[in-house]
Amino acid sequence: MSFLSRIGFIETEEQEQARLAQATEGSLNHYLSTLPVTIEEWPKDLLVELPWEPPRTNQPYRVVVVPMEFRKEALPDGVEEEPVPRKRHSGSWMCAVVFSTHPSYPAGGFRIDVPAAELARGRKVDLAGVQAQA
User: What is the pLDDT of residues 17-26, one digit of tens each?
Assistant: First the structure.
């Protein structure tokens, strides 16, 4: 647990999981609440395979993205600062799709907006490992 979580400035893993689980069953956030965080670092410029497997989708898809630009979560009108504890994985990332088996998300520079909570539950892709397998 990080220092900021211990002092209550940022939500703990358990608090984040509980917050995501409050979303409607079948929603992306509810699905994400069932997955562990696998990427703790700042994801900019990493290759990340998104968690697109049932029950999120009717069949598994492989979608690999490169997070390029962080977008802060908008606060409600009249609120000037995010309440404490702050969300552990807030905001979203504009990502380039670099590999995809999903028909709606073609590779080759197609851009998608991905919640930070989803990226944190993705799988980091190691190109050196992929090339060694080829």
Answer: 999 999 999 9
